[in-house]
């Protein structure tokens, strides 16, 4: 699933479409896409993992889900677009394998821009207040709460917790105030690092623990859980340098599920 920094890159690539009028609209979305015909695209915004095409009286929310993609000024021959917008000046944008939704309310009434870790309006104090209201939530889940850290995904989660040396099963309420502040600060800082590395096509080279085998700090084999916490997302961490805060040590993890057997189809 594309994380917040990837959506900012998409916005930057598409922002030259702002100001153009929709000449033709199509796609296999179940939404009434013809609502957009003839409308002028005012602005393109992002909130977390949402791309927002603002047409003034209506906005289109694009969520790329797990395997969504897009093209600008070209089309893929191997996929049917969920949404195609052809503009004046022979410009177009295509979205594939994604969620398309209309938003009729003003975007400022729908979105808390202060929760977006990539936004100029990011509000770390509000994030801390929200986290203090969920003391029993493990930090691996808390970092994925989009109303707290809009845009943070699983890669950022794993890398941030390694940076700040916090075990992913630590409960938010057990974190010292300083470590909670470290986690909030690095959620934003790492997101901007992700953004710069992704633009330079070197993101994977900078991963420290995500999809890795050993900790680069101390050489300890990394621990791994395929479905950690209530979010049930993949987690990678180092039991040597990532401290568990709380009594009694981290909860015992369930045994890994056996690999699925492939059924041969003839």
UniProtKB/TrEMBL annotation:
Family per similarity comment: Belongs to the FPG family.
List UniProt keywords, sorted A-Z. Answer: DNA damage, DNA repair, DNA-binding, Endonuclease, Glycosidase, Hydrolase, Lyase, Multifunctional enzyme, Nuclease
A family per Pfam: H2TH
Report what the protein is called.
Answer: Endonuclease
Instruction: List the GO molecular function terms.
Output: damaged DNA binding; DNA-(apurinic or apyrimidinic site) endonuclease activity; lyase activity; oxidized purine nucleobase lesion DNA N-glycosylase activity; zinc ion binding
Lineage of the species this protein comes from? Bacteria, Pseudomonadati, Pseudomonadota, Gammaproteobacteria, Lysobacterales
Coiled-coil region: none
Q: InterPro entries under this entry?
A: FPG_cat, FPG_N, H2TH_FPG, Ribosomal_uS13-like_H2TH
Q: Which reaction does it catalyse?
A: Hydrolysis of DNA containing ring-opened 7-methylguanine residues, releasing 2,6-diamino-4-hydroxy-5-(N-methyl)formamidopyrimidine
Q: Which Gene3D superfamilies match?
A: 1.10.8.50, MutM-like, N-terminal (3.20.190.10)
Which BP terms from GO are recorded? base-excision repair
* Record-annotated Formamidopyrimidine-DNA glycosylase catalytic domain positions: 2-94
Q: Does the keyword Lyase apply?
A: yes
Statement: the UniProt record of this protein carries the keyword Lyase: yes
């Amino acid at each position: 699933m594309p994380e917040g920094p990837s959506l900012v890159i998409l916005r930057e690539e598409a922002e030259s479409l702002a100001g153009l009028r929709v000449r033709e609209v199509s796609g296999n979305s179940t939404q009434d896409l013809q609502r957009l015909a003839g409308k002028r695209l005012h602005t393109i915004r992002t909130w977390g993992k949402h791309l927002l095409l603002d047409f003034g009286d209506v906005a289109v929310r694009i969520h790329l889900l797990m395997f969504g993609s897009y093209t600008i000024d070209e089309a893929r021959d191997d996929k049917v677009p969920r949404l195609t917008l052809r503009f004046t000046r022979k410009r177009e944008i295509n979205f594939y394998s994604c969620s398309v939704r209309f938003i009729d309310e003003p975007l400022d009434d729908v979105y808390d821009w202060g929760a977006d870790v990539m936004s100029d309006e990011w509000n770390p104090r509000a994030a801390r207040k929200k986290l203090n209201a969920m003391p029993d939530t493990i930090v691996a889940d808390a970092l994925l709460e989009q109303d707290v850290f809009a845009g943070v995904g699983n890669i950022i989660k794993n890398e941030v917790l390694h940076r700040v040396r916090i075990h992913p099963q630590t409960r938010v309420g057990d974190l010292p105030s300083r470590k909670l502040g470290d986690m909030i600060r690095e959620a934003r800082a790492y997101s901007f690092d992700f953004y710069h590395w992704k633009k330079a096509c070197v993101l994977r080279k900078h991963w420290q623990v995500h999809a890795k085998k050993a900790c680069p700090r101390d050489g300890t084999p990394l621990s791994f859980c395929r479905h950690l916490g209530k979010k049930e997302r993949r987690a990678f961490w180092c039991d040597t340098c990532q401290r568990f805060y709380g009594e009694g040590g981290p909860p015992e993890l369930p045994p890994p599920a056996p690999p699925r057997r492939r059924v041969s189809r003839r």
